[in-house]
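Field log, afternoon session.

UNIT: design team B
ACTIVITY: writing a sequence onto a fixed backbone
BACKBONE:
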């Protein structure tokens, strides 16, 4: 399949087509658009953040408890994004999230934004586990196992 400008698969081969992908729906509101009437580019990052949060919640990870009990939070370390086609006001979007890899302190994800079956945005996101002081942390084994069970 052809790749986008960032080496990402614009057809989302590891995203929406993945039967293990978590799907999160959201609607485009007027506040999400720019003067041209299309979704402002930075708002795609907000959409995929919301989808990641719901994915983590769905697999049974309580991020508030993780911070309280282990002092661990997740942060985006790296993101690669490919803007393929614009979303507009009132579109219903599907954000598909798939785990690609899980290590002791990192989670690599594919996230795709679609309007029906049309791919609008493709990304690869690397999350890292950090302690309150910003130092790297290991993801507790029980949680690593939950994340690893979702790897495509």
């Amino acid at each position: 399949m052809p790749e986008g400008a960032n080496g990402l698969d614009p057809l989302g081969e590891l995203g929406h087509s993945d039967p293990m992908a978590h799907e999160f729906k959201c609607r485009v509101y007027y506040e999400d658009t720019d003067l041209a009437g299309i979704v402002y580019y930075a708002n795609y990052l907000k959409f995929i953040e919301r989808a990641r949060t719901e994915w983590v919640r769905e697999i049974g990870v309580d991020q508030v408890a993780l911070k309280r009990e282990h002092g661990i939070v997740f942060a985006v370390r790296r993101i690669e994004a490919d803007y393929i086609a614009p979303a507009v006001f009132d579109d219903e979007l599907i954000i598909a999230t798939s785990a690609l890899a899980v290590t002791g302190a990192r989670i690599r994800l594919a996230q795709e934004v679609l309007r029906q079956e049309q791919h609008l945005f493709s990304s690869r996101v690397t999350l890292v586990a950090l302690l309150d002081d910003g130092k790297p942390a290991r993801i507790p084994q029980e949680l690593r196992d939950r994340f690893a069970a979702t790897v495509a």
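LOG NOTE: The chain has one domain: 22-146.
NEXT ACTIVITY: expression trials, pending approval
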